[in-house]
Design goal:
The chain is an alpha/beta fold. It has 11 helices and 12 strands. The strands form 2 sheets. The protein has a 6-stranded mixed sheet, sandwiched between helices. A 6-stranded parallel sheet has the order 9-8-7-10-11-12, sandwiched between helices. Helix 5 crosses helix 6 and helix 5 (107-117) crosses helix 10 (257-273). The structure holds nicotinamide-adenine-dinucleotide.
Length: 288
C-alpha cells in the first residue's frame, strides 16, 4: 500500500484494540478497490472519547469504527444517528462529513445479512434471542426494523436484564407492530416453550465463547427440530457447543458468529466508501 499526501484516514477507536482484525480487513479492501485510504487502530479510554473524536474531525478523518468502551459515548456525541443506532443507543460506525458525525450500528445489519446469505429472511419470523448486551440488542433492534413478527428476549437476572426490558420498550414505541416479550433465562420451561414457537433461535450471550466453550444455554436437546434456524453471535470458537448439538439433532440451518462479523464489516465499508467490500476474498484471507 502506498501512502502519500492525499491518503485519507479511517480508524478504529476503543480499548483494547491491539487484537482487532479491522485494520487488516479494511486496508486490504482499500487496496483491492483502488482507494487511496488507510485504516489505523487507536487505543482510546472512555474519558478521552470526546477529545479524540474532536481531533479526528479536525484532522479530516473520513470515518471511524468504535469498539468498547466508547460505543455509547460516541452515540451521545453524534449529530445524527441511524434508526438502529438510535434504538440501540450505541454506534460502531461513524462517518464524518462537513464536520458532522453520522452514527450507525452495523452489528445487527451484519447478523440479518448473514442470515439472508444463508436463505433466511427475518421478515414475519418469530425469534427467540438469548442475551441483552451489545450484540443481542443490535440483533433484536435490527430484526425488528426488518420486519420480524415477534421477538422473545431471554436473559439471566444479571445487570443486563434491565437492558432487555428497555430494548423491548423502545422497540414497542418505535415499531408497535413488532411484539417483544422479555423473560428470565432461569425459567427454562418458558424458554423451551417459546423456542418451540420460534422460527429462529439466537445465542447472543457470552456462553459458548472461550473460556465457556463447553457450555450451552440449551440443555433440553429435544427443542432442536430440523426447521429451527440456530444462530450464534459467538465466533471464538467458530463452532460452539450450541451449534454442534443443534447440528447433531438435525437442524438444517446452523450459523456461527463469524458470518455476522464479516457482514458487519462489509456494511461499515459500504457506509464509509459507497463501495462494495470484496467480502468473499476478505473471508478467505482473514476469517478462515
Ligand atoms: P456484553 O458483555 O455486552 O453482553 C454479555 C451478555 O452475556 C449479557 O446478556 C449477559 O447476561 C450474558 N452472559 C454472560 N455470562 C453469562 C452466563 N454465564 N450465563 C448466561 N448469560 C451470560 O457482550 P457482547 O458484546 O454482547 O458479546 C456477546 C457475545 O457476542 C460475545 O461472544 C462476543 O464475542 C459476540 N459478538 C459477536 C459479534 C459478531 O459480529 N459476531 C459482535 C459482537 C459480539
Amino acid at each position: 500500500m502506498d501512502i502519500n499526501g492525499k491518503t485519507e484516514l479511517f480508524c478504529l477507536i476503543g480499548s483494547p484494540v491491539g487484537h482487532s482484525g479491522s485494520p487488516a480487513m479494511y486496508n486490504y479492501s482499500f487496496h483491492r478497490t483502488n482507494m487511496n485510504c488507510a485504516y489505523l487502530a487507536f487505543d482510546v479510554e472512555l474519558a478521552k472519547t470526546k477529545e479524540v473524536v474532536d481531533s479526528l474531525k479536525a484532522l479530516g478523518c473520513r470515518g471511524f469504527n468504535v469498539t468498547m468502551p466508547c460505543k455509547t459515548r460516541v452515540a451521545e456525541l453524534a449529530d445524527e444517528l441511524s434508526d438502529a443506532a438510535a434504538l440501540i443507543g450505541a454506534c460502531n460506525t461513524v462517518v464524518i462529513k462537513d464536520g458532522r458525525l453520522y452514527g450507525h450500528n452495523t452489528d445487527g445489519i451484519g447478523f440479518v445479512k448473514n442470515l439472508k446469505e444463508h436463505g433466511v429472511d427475518v421478515k414475519d419470523k418469530v425469534m427467540a434471542v438469548m442475551g441483552a448486551g451489545g450484540a443481542a440488542t443490535a440483533i433484536q433492534v435490527q430484526s425488528a426494523l426488518e420486519g420480524a413478527k415477534k421477538i422473545y428476549i431471554f436473559n439471566r437476572r444479571d445487570e443486563f436484564y434491565p437492558n432487555a426490558e428497555s430494548t423491548a420498550k423502545k422497540i414497542s414505541e418505535k415499531l408497535p407492530e413488532v411484539d417483544v416479550e422479555v423473560y428470565p433465562l432461569e425459567d427454562s420451561r418458558v424458554l423451551y416453550e417459546k423456542v418451540q414457537k420460534s422460527h429462529i433461535l439466537v445465542n447472543a450471550t457470552k456462553v459458548g465463547m472461550k473460556p465457556m466453550e463447553e457450555e450451552s444455554l440449551i440443555q433440553d436437546l429435544s427443542v432442536f427440530r430440523p426447521d429451527l434456524v440456530v444462530a450464534d453471535a459467538v465466533y471464538n470458537p467458530r463452532e460452539t457447543k450450541l451449534l454442534r448439538e443443534a447440528m447433531e439433532k438435525g437442524c438444517k440451518t446452523v450459523l456461527g458468529g463469524i458470518g455476522m462479523l464479516l457482514r458487519q464489516g462489509e456494511a461499515a465499508f459500504n457506509i464509509f466508501t459507497g463501495e462494495d467490500m470484496p467480502a468473499q476474498e476478505v473471508y478467505e484471507k482473514f476469517f478462515q
